[in-house]
């Protein structure tokens, strides 16, 4: 028969052991992250120089670079942000502030929850059928941007709704009491107060979009691009041009995928270097998002 | 300035765009698949054991792609479910507040890494490590891809499970302490069962992620359809097949082109089923307390 003291000591020991075990399991994730980053840097360090960023793809591994992919990624993100941000915020505001609690709203909500779980490659198939062939946009930057916008729309909507939900009712009532309409309340009060939360959602969404490969492979993005699209800003009137929307393109994840799949191991260093650039961009976007979330928590105390 | 009514209409239209996306997905999958099933009978599609839609003598049995998907998903779950659960229990019941605030964002970074980078990691780091243990392991195999996929899914499982466990009222824990339970017994016998539907939903959503994951398996598990349950062999998943075929320039309207939509429809139905199950479970745990 164990004494009470022995039982208590045993149970306290159990807690300590489990704590250690929990830390070990949590560090599996952290160690993987470090191993992954370390490996990419070691494999790609030789290629990480300005020449790599300033060169086009090439048949010779040592001369190849990611210029077209980097510019492609940025232009695709421009389209994605231009579409997903206004659409997502507007949809979030509608669902949180305007929508009546009825069946119609419930359908939209379930639909958004489901869209968030649809595999990205399915968005690619949708884009292939709708944007590439039905709308005739081809394998263009416009198609890619719209595809990724559809993909991140649920993220922006959910972030907008959550940000609006943290604003207390009294703010809305104070605005109505001063004679503001619903739209004026949204525009002058609710949106400015939820900027932090919405911005966090947008950054997380875009960081996911910039790393997406599968949907863009599906719509037929090429990996071997030896030119840049027409610049969006021009020297002559009207100073902006939209020709680039129609251009062929490649993006960084696709360039990396292409280099990983080549039998020639010389290209693996290029893939690793592209991975370093890509992961550098996504992780710093996430760091900014975490920072914005932290700052926002301190700024408004309701 | 917009009028109030005009604004409401514009916002409502934006909300409807999410419905338009779903309609687009379903319409494309159903239209192209029905063209596909005009050539191939549903029975052949579901029972034939060979998938070679681009060969001169094509065979259309989805089974090899389904087994590839199941094997990689099971490996990923074998990694993500136990580790994710333990991490969630640790973060929710054991870790001091400051440590949780540090670890949670770091773990979430795991799901921020682009999947193509994970694919590179699986092929060039994890597989060579595994080959040190299993020397006859081929370069492309489902084991390495599945393990890396599992690590990627850990944060999905742990963060949802943790939310569910933290929603369990402190009263229940105090009852357990009063009866002489330590933290571990309280976590396993009181908090875990009380949060089970939320934890279950995190598992189900993890499954849905694993089934739909594309780049890791496309890079590290090989792209050849292979009817096998052996995780050390190369095989293609449904998603890897779609990517493999899309890389080539398929003529619009050919049977090969239609076959990726038929495969996509199977994938969509599978993930939809898991998503709905997860959504239901999560709603239930929110309503309990």
What are the main properties of this structure?
heterodimer; A: 302 residues; mainly alpha; MetI-like fold; 2 domains; 12 helices; B: 289 residues; 0% strand
Task: Describe this entry's structure for a reader.
The complex is a heterodimer of chains A (302) and B (289). Chain A folds into two domains: 42 residues; 252 residues, Orthogonal Bundle (MetI-like fold), CATH 1.10.3720.10. In chain A, 73% of the residues lie in helices and 0% in strands. Chain A starts with a helix and ends with a helix. The mean pLDDT of chain A is 87. Chain B has two domains: 37 residues; 242 residues, Orthogonal Bundle (MetI-like fold). In chain B, 76% of the residues lie in helices and 0% in strands. Chain B has twelve helices and no strands. Chains A and B meet through helix 1, helix 3, helix 4, helix 5 and helix 6 of A and helix 1, helix 3, helix 4, helix 5 and helix 6 of B.
CATH class of the largest domain in chain B: Mainly Alpha
Q: Which CATH-level-2 architecture of the largest domain in chain A?
A: Orthogonal Bundle
Along the chain, the helix and strand elements of chain A come as HHHHHHHHHHHH
Structural category of chain B: mainly alpha
Task: Lay out the secondary structure.
The complex is a heterodimer of chains A (302) and B (289).
Chain A lengths: L3 H41 L5 H5 L12 H32 L4 H15 L2 H15 L6 H25 L3 H9 L4 H12 L1 H17 L2 H5 L33 H9 L5 H34 L3
Helix pairs in contact in A: 1-12, 3-6, 3-9, 3-11, 4-6, 5-6, 6-9, 7-8, 9-12, 11-12
Chain B lengths: L3 H36 L2 H6 L15 H32 L2 H14 L4 H19 L8 H25 L3 H9 L4 H12 L1 H17 L2 H6 L17 H10 L7 H34 L1
Helix pairs in contact in B: 1-12, 3-6, 3-9, 4-6, 5-6, 6-9, 7-8, 9-12, 11-12
């Amino acid at each position: 028969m164990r004494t009470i003291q022995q039982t208590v000591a045993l149970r306290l020991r159990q807690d300590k052991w489990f704590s250690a075990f929990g830390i070990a399991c949590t560090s599996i994730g952290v160690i993987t992250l470090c191993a992954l980053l370390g490996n990419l840097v070691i494999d790609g360090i030789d290629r990480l120089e300005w020449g790599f960023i300033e060169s086009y793809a090439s048949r010779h591994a040592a001369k190849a670079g990611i210029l077209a992919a980097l510019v492609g990624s940025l232009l695709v993100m421009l389209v994605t942000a231009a579409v997903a941000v206004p659409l997502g915020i507007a949809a979030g505001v509608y669902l949180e502030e305007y929508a009546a609690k009825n069946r119609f709203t419930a359908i939209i909500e379930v639909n958004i929850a489901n869209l968030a779980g649809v595999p990205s490659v399915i968005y690619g198939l949708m884009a292939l059928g709708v944007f590439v062939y039905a709308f005739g946009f081809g394998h263009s930057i416009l198609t890619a941007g719209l595809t990724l916008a559809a993909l991140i729309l649920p993220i922006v909507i959910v972030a907008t709704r959550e940000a609006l939900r943290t604003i207390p009712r009294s703010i809305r009532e104070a605005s109505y009491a001063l004679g503001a309409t619903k739209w004026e309340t949204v525009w002058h009060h609710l949106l400015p107060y939820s900027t932090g939360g919405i911005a966090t959602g947008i950054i997380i969404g875009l960081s996911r979009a910039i790393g997406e490969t599968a949907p863009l492979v599906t719509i037929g993005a090429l990996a071997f691009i030896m030119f840049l699209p027409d610049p969006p800003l021009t020297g002559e009137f009207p100073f902006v041009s939209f020709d680039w929307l129609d251009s062929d393109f490649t993006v960084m994840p696709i360039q990396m995928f292409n280099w990983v799949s080549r039998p020639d191991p010389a290209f693996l260093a290029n893939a690793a270097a592209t991975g370093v650039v890509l992961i550098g961009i996504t992780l710093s976007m996430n760091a900014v998002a975490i920072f914005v979330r932290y700052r926002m928590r301190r700024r408004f105390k309701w | 300035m917009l009028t109030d009514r005009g604004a409401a209409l514009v916002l409502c239209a934006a909300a409807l765009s999410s419905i338009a996306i779903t309609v687009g997905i379903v319409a494309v999958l159903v239209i192209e698949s029905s063209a596909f099933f005009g050539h191939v009978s549903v029975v052949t599609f579901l029972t034939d054991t060979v998938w070679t839609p681009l060969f001169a003598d094509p065979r259309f049995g989805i089974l090899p792609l389904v087994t590839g998907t199941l094997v990689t998903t099971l490996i990923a779950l074998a990694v993500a479910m136990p580790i994710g659960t333990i991490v969630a229990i640790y973060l929710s019941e054991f870790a001091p507040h400051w440590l949780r605030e540090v670890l949670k964002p770091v773990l979430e970074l795991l799901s921020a890494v682009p999947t193509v980078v994970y694919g590179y990691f699986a092929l060039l780091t994890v597989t060579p490590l595994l080959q040190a243990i299993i020397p006859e392991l081929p370069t492309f195999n489902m084991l390495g891809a599945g393990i890396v996929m599992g690590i990627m899914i850990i944060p999905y499982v742990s963060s949802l499970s943790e939310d569910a466990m933290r929603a369990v009222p402190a009263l229940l824990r105090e009852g357990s302490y009063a009866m002489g339970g330590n933290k571990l017994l309280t976590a396993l016998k009181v908090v875990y069962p009380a949060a089970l539907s939320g934890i279950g939903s995190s598992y189900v959503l993890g499954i849905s992620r694993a089934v739909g994951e594309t780049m890791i398996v496309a890079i590290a598990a090989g792209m050849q359809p292979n009817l096998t349950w052996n995780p050390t062999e190369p095989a293609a998943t449904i998603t890897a097949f779609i990517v493999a075929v899309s890389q080539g320039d398929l003529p619009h309207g050919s049977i090969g082109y239609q076959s990726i939509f038929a495969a996509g429809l199977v994938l969509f139905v599978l993930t939809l089923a898991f998503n709905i199950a997860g959504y239901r479970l999560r709603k239930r745990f929110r309503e309990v307390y």
